[in-house]
Design a protein that fits this description.
single chain, 9 helices
Length: about 290
């Protein structure tokens, strides 16, 4: 909720305020009030804000933010630990059914769930959200990806600067003599793992596939099947891996990864964005008819 709605003359009855938790820039989409962290602190507490102190301490401090659903202050820990991830439990059956997921596939990718109340009464920072640990190639916890299942469909990487492009969700499952099925969402990777396919699903946790991620794939699998989302970002991500610009022309700094590893491209049916929107039979049919980039 906007804490200074219409200059404090009104109550934001329908939450319409948002804030960038990394920069402190905020905006109310209803009354138009916006600014930086300094004027937010001043308007809420009446105290002047020391921006330099904030910049020096924010990497390790526990900073109070605003719960985007209930308008309550919450605490976001800047460093994510294995103990913090384990605090979250397994998803409820209704959430699994909605995504066509199973308990086994969720455990395989260690995807967890933030129930609105922890132990029946203590509120957690991310209610009704999927929690996916971001694990390094050496299998240490670097952070987590948070995605709300309903409502505002809230999405966040914690911490915001976590180097997710240096790893892959499901990297520990890759086998040298089998292909990798590369998707964007960890939930899509988990869903694909329930199917009887030879490829091992992994997720980039974003539309951009980095050079580091491709190097990991090249070192750990026999073939790469690209199934990035069928949207503008996903299409550009696929082209970039083949050394192409958005226009289809070769890029100046061409890096065609198909020269280093066999690449196949999955072609989605019309009006389908990702694997999560497809029936199992349709996914199998799509994977049986992948195309070569040449």
């Amino acid at each position: 909720r906007c804490p200074y709605h219409y200059e404090g003359k009104s109550v934001d009855s329908t939450p319409s305020w948002s804030i960038d938790v990394e920069t402190g820039i905020h905006h109310c989409h209803s009354c138009g009030w916006s600014g930086g962290l300094g004027n937010l602190v001043y308007r809420v507490s009446g105290e002047h804000f020391d921006q330099s102190t904030f910049k020096a301490e924010r990497a390790t401090a526990r900073v109070k933010k605003i719960n985007p659903w209930a308008g309550r202050p919450i605490t976001i820990q800047r460093e994510v630990t294995a103990a913090e991830v384990k605090m979250y439990g397994r998803p409820p059956q209704w959430a699994l059914k909605k995504r066509n997921l199973t308990t086994d596939c969720i455990e395989t990718y260690d995807i967890r769930w933030a129930d609105p109340y922890l132990n029946g009464k203590e509120r957690v920072p991310y209610p009704d959200c999927w929690i996916t640990p971001i694990v390094s190639p050496k299998l240490s916890i670097m952070g987590m990806q948070v995605k709300q299942e309903s409502g505002d469909r809230f999405f966040r990487n914690v911490p915001g600067a976590v180097p997710k492009s240096s790893t892959l969700c499901g990297i520990q499952r890759l086998v040298a003599d089998r292909p990798a099925l590369v998707v964007e969402s960890p939930l899509d990777a988990a869903y694909a793992s329930t199917l009887n396919i030879d490829a091992i699903p992994v997720a980039t946790m974003g539309a951009y596939v980095s050079g580091e991620q491709m190097d990991l794939l090249i070192a750990r699998c026999a073939q790469v099947i690209l199934a990035l989302d069928e949207d503008k970002a996903g299409r550009q991500g696929t082209r970039a891996l083949l050394g192409l610009q958005a226009s289809g022309r070769f890029a100046r700094d061409r890096r065609d990864y198909s020269r280093r590893v066999p690449i196949r491209i999955a072609c989605y049916p019309d009006d389908v964005k990702d694997i999560g929107e497809m029936a199992p039979s349709s996914i199998l049919e799509m994977l049986a008819s992948t195309i070569s980039p040449t």
